[in-house]
Amino acid sequence: MSTPPVWFERLLLTGAAGGLGRQLRPRLKRLCRVLRLSDVADLGPVADGEEFAQAPLQDAAAVHAMLDGVDAVVHLGGVSVEGPFEPILQANIAGVHHLYEAARKHGTRRIVFASSNHVTGYYRQDEVVDPDMPARPDGNYGLSKAFGEVLSRYYYDRYGIETVCLRIGSSFPEPRDRRMLATWLSYDDLERLVVASLTAPVVGHRIVYGVSDNRTTWWDNDRSAAVIGYRPQDSSEPFRAALEAAQPQVDRSDPAVLYQGGGFVRSGPFD
User: Are 68 and 105 in contact (CB under 8 A)?
Assistant: First the structure.
């Protein structure tokens, strides 16, 4: 059996202690000789072929040191839920700027940026959205991810740092409600998506929705997914009957049912 290629000498995974970071941590090790892990939370023991770099994203000097010797980045770090603006500003807006500045200075050439479906959360659930349509964020969190997408475009245009922005839907072991019949991304498809984003020969600047091959779809992903070679293999369909039985009726006047962002459109204000 042939040995799979090692794509990177050192690959950085930020947000490694989070839900998706814990899933990707063992799955990314085959792509690199050294997997550098970062989070402000406890990561547990560091295994062979791993190293730890603790760097709060709002600390520019720490982020600069974290990118030293890094070939590529999977950036999951930051605030991952809707909430007050100030913490999101520091981690998701200032933090992503620090990351790209560090990448520029260290010569890191590719970043996989965990964006979110909440960048377009104020489109209705009866609309189909493609990556070229205007952002319609549904809160502070979605606004910060829209900023990250625009910033990453700037760093590609000006400095040539390639980025795949992943507008991740709902990545859990299985969909939890009827909304997730459209937004679900299995962990295995998450891995396929991230690996494709890292290893496609040329990506330029690309926005791809992180979603499995679900029957119900709100996002036109065909063109962008094809560019990076992402082919989802899982689907929410096996869970449909149970979810519809558990939630047989929905209130069509509820903003969380009307808009793609779901419950995020009802969050706040936080003052």
Answer: no
* Gap between the Cα atoms of 133 and 221, Å rounded: 12
Which of 3.90.550.10, 3.40.50.1700, 3.40.50.720, 3.30.1330.10 is the CATH number of 8-266?
A: 3.40.50.720
Dihedral of alpha carbons 50, 55, 57, 63, sign: negative
What does the alpha-carbon distance between residue 128 and residue 105 come to, in Å, rounded to a whole number? 39
User: Is 148:163 a contact under the CB 8 Å cutoff?
Assistant: no
Tell me the average pLDDT of the chain.
Answer: 95
- The per-residue pLDDT for range 207-230, each reduced to its tens digit, is 999 999 999 999 999 999 999 999
- pLDDT, one tens digit per residue, over 174-204 is 999 999 999 999 999 999 999 999 999 999 9
All residues at 6 or more sequence positions from 126 whose CB lies less than 8 Å from its CB, including other chains: none
Q: How far is CA 21 from the centre of its chain?
A: 10
Return the half-sphere exposure (C-beta side, CA atoms, 13 A cut-off) of residue 114. 26
Which two tokens mark 111? 């970043």
User: Which residues face 207 on adjacent strands?
Assistant: 165
Catalytic site residue 156? no
- Sequence length of the chain is 271
Query: Domain boundaries in the chain?
Result: 8-266
The tokens describing 1, both together, are 């059996």
| Pairwise CA distance, residues 262 & 193, whole Å | 23
| Contact predicate 140/85, CB 8 Å | yes
| Catalytic hit among 141, 187, 230, 259 | 141
Report DSSP state, residue 168. E
Contact at 8 Å (CB) between 109 and 71? Answer: yes
Contacts of residue 28, defined as CB under 8 A and 6 or more positions apart, other chains included, come to 11, 13, 35, 74, 194, 195
